[in-house]
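User: Predict the structure for this protein chain, please.
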Amino acid sequence: MFPVIGITSNFDLENHRSTVSSDYTRAVESAGGIPLLIPVLDNPGRVGALLDRLDGLILTGGVDVDPSHFGEEPRPKLGRVSPERDRIEIPLARAALEKRLPLLGVCRGIQLLNIAAGGAVFQDIYSQVKDPLKHNQEAPRWYPSHEVKLDQAALVGKIHGVKALRVNSFHHQAVSRVAPGFVVSAWAGDGVTEGIERPGDPFTVGVQWHPEGMWEKEPRYLAIFTALVEAARG
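Assistant: Here is the predicted structure, written as C-alpha cells:
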C-alpha cells in the first residue's frame, strides 16, 4: 500500500499557477508515499471531500499568513501574504485536525497549523524576539545553519533519536502563542519555537526548518517524512 500524501501548493497570482517544489514530492516518494499536489481551490467548502481522498497531508512553506487570522493588525515588518492560500489552507488544516489525519507542517506550514488551531505567530522575530539568532540563512538550502533542541518525549525527538539537531533556516516568523492542545517539541538557542505537535494524535507535527531540502545530502532528515507516511499507512 502506498499512502496518498496531499501537498499544498504556492499560488502565483500573476501567472495563474499553483506550484510546489519537487523537494517535497521526492521526499514523500522516497519515504514510500504517493505525493499529490493540492492546488489553491476557489471553494473552501470542498476540503472535506478532498481529505476523504488523502491518507496524509503536508502544509508547505511559503509567504506569511495574514495576521487578521490570529486577531492582529499588520506590523511594519510583515512580509507578503497570500489571501488565496490562507482561504483554502486554514479550513484544510482545521478539517484535517478534526479528522486526525496525519499532518506535517513545514515552515509556513507550522505557523499556519498553529494559527488554524487557535494559536498565533510573531509577525517578525527580528523585531519581536530579544537577541534572535539568524533564522534566514545565506547558505545553500541543504546546509544546516543552527542547532535546535528536541524534546525526547515528543514525536520529533523519537523520530530523530537525538537530543539536538542542526537544521536549515529560512523564516522571519515563528510560533508565539502555542495553540490549545499543542506542545512545543523543538526550540532554537534563542528560545524561538522550532517544532510543535498535538499529543494523542497519530501524527500532527510542525517543524520550522525544511527537511525536504536536506535529506538528499543527509538521509536522516528523511525520517520525518517516513514517519508521516507510516502514520498515513496505519
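The radius of gyration is 16 Å.
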